[in-house]
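Researcher: Here's a chain I'd like modeled. Treat it as a single chain, no partners, no ligands.
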Amino acid sequence: MTELLCLGEPMLEFNQQPDGHFLMGHGGDTSNCAIAAARSGASSGVVTALGRDAFGDSFASLWAQNGVAADLVKRRGDGHTGVYFVTHSADGHAFSYLRAGSAASRMGPADLPLEAIRAARCLHLTGITLAISDSSCDAGFAAIEAARESGVSVSFDTNLRLKLWPLARARALIGAAMGMCDIALPGLDDAQQLTGLTEPQAIVDHYLAAGASIVALTLGAEGTLVATPERTERVAAFRVVAVDATAAGDTFDGAFLAEWLRQGDPFVAARYANAAAALSTQGYGAVAPMPDRKDVETFLEGAAL
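Model: Modeled as a single isolated chain. Structure tokens:
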């Protein structure tokens, strides 16, 4: 049984280097999450579709190398594997996407491995899964419903991308998904736009009232505000020399879920995930800098001294 199943779109990454050249890598929020979780010791897998192309072959190799189960992945001839580019400037990093008509965006409810979803411990997906197409959105909600019917925990990261859809539609659909999840993983900027609230405490209260039993609101350099119905605590961030924040949020998600599945404490999981996310910013690209459990535990031991 795969403990954590991540439903969404993998994308090949071309990340701009200091000399202007682009380094090929792998991305896609839920694929990143699955890899980060696997590197932290969780049994994780991906639910998606790839094109019958070399980029799809590259992902199959990547998942195999990282111990991510890919037996539920479909290869399609009617869509390509998605691609994105990351460029860097004084204002931060920017993304450009080539994903229209991708294999993953063509997934629908009929493509879901419902038995595997019902047998997992946790299903994870994001706002991007709902945004890339109507059929992917339908698949996302069908997967959530199947998980809930079987007592499988649902984790949802807002991951708001306004290039993909209007804010009003994002508010409606992400709001519905967040109301059906057990573990809410919003970022502060996303949550402020989606809820109209500004204060972190008001935001976590909002998502707890909507039905989540755990909320981990990431606050960047200010750490993570973690809340359950019984307790709220701000978990401090870790200071590192960051060079590229690509996939830091996805690394947080995967590390958080892996640690939560391991020992059940969301506050301890947030500290572990903050450390993993910080370490992931010390190299370029989404996947290459992601730490494994030994790296994170060594870092935490040093931080405690």
